Amino acid sequence: MHPEIVCLGEPMLEFNRQADGRYLAGHGGDTSNCAIAAARQGASVGYLTCLGNDAFGDSFMALWAAEGVDASQVCREPDAPTAIYFVDHNEGQHRFTYLRAGSAASRMTPRTFARDYIAGARVLHVSGISQAISQSACDTVFHAIGVARENGVTVSYDPNLRLKLWPLQRARAVIHAAMSECDIALPGLDDAVHLTGLDEPEAIVDFYLKLGAGTVALTLGKAGTLVATAQRRELVAVREVAAVDATGAGDTFDGAFLAEMLQVRDPFAAARYANAAAALSTLGYGAVAPMPTRAAVLAFLEAG
């Protein structure tokens, strides 16, 4: 069966510093995290990327197989590595160090993946990070968006701004161009402030609606998520939890939101569900390991 949700991007092996100073190995990469989060909510998910022909790449293939994410279209590069990153924590904040230059994923081109795999999905999810890692990867994302739009596939986009990867002026131009082609915009507040030059959440969602998105879900951290369509907007509250590590919380939100949207077709209900999933994902270390299942999210919602 063809996946309902197809995510495209760069997976990265994660080394997350623990309280005792040791690094815990895990898996990361924003769109891969999103794919796994969606799969844990019961969605049918596939992933598109290039991996190194190395042990780290092998570990991702094993991870996606275990999580039920279809990786049949993933390519392997014999002479390029799978990217890695390190996470350090300080006073509730996390700091990232990346080793991704020349990664296998950065070698993606518009010809790497079969058009039919994207065309057969219900949702394509991509991000600004995937466009920042190389020119060819940027072109690949635009190509995938074009294929999706030609075939009536919903396009979901998370800016996920990383200023270590590209200058703000270029990021704005590329991300705004991609956002103008998306149906579902999933920005975080800090990224959106940088990209739009606006401070007020209401003004930011107006900006993205005017660019062309049908639905905007602007995540505001502890303040909740401002969800907006042309007809309605609502601040969807979150429940506070004793957070340990928020590394993959935004990606968990994205995956849970898209999975729930396929179920209920209601962005406000989907944001309530995704807020709960994102909160639960902060209760452990690492991007993937703490991601909740659908059963856990439903239990959390019922308890509240």
Features:
single chain, 15 strands, 11 helices, four-stranded mixed beta sheet, nine-stranded mixed beta sheet, 304 residues, alpha/beta, 40% helix
Describe the protein in words.
The protein has 304 residues and is an alpha/beta fold. The protein starts with a strand and ends with a helix. Strand 14 and strand 15 form a beta hairpin. 40% of the residues lie in helices and 22% in strands. It has one domain (5-303): UDP-N-acetylmuramoyl-L-alanine:D-glutamate ligase (3-Layer(aba) Sandwich), CATH 3.40.1190. The protein has eleven helices and 15 strands. Strands 6-4-1-10-11-12-13-14-15 form a nine-stranded mixed β-sheet, sandwiched between helices. Strands 3-2-8-9 form a four-stranded mixed β-sheet. Strands 5-7 form a two-stranded parallel ribbon.
Output the structural class: alpha/beta
- State the domain count: 1
Oligomerization: single chain
Strand order of the largest sheet: 6-4-1-10-11-12-13-14-15
CATH class call: Alpha Beta
The CATH topology corresponds to UDP-N-acetylmuramoyl-L-alanine:D-glutamate ligase
Question: Nutshell version of this structure?
Answer:
The chain is built from eleven helices and 15 strands. The protein has 304 residues and is an alpha/beta fold.
Helices and strands, with pairings:
Elements: E1 5-8, E2 12-17, E3 23-28, H1 30-40, E4 45-48, E5 50-52, H2 55-67, E6 69-70, E7 75-77, E8 83-90, E9 93-99, H3 115-119, E10 123-127, H4 128-132, H5 135-150, E11 154-158, H6 168-179, E12 184-185, H7 189-196, H8 201-211, E13 215-219, E14 225-228, E15 233-236, H9 249-264, H10 267-281, H11 294-303
Parallel strand pairs: 1-4, 1-10, 2-8, 4-6, 5-7, 10-11, 11-12, 12-13
Antiparallel strand pairs: 2-3, 8-9, 13-14, 14-15
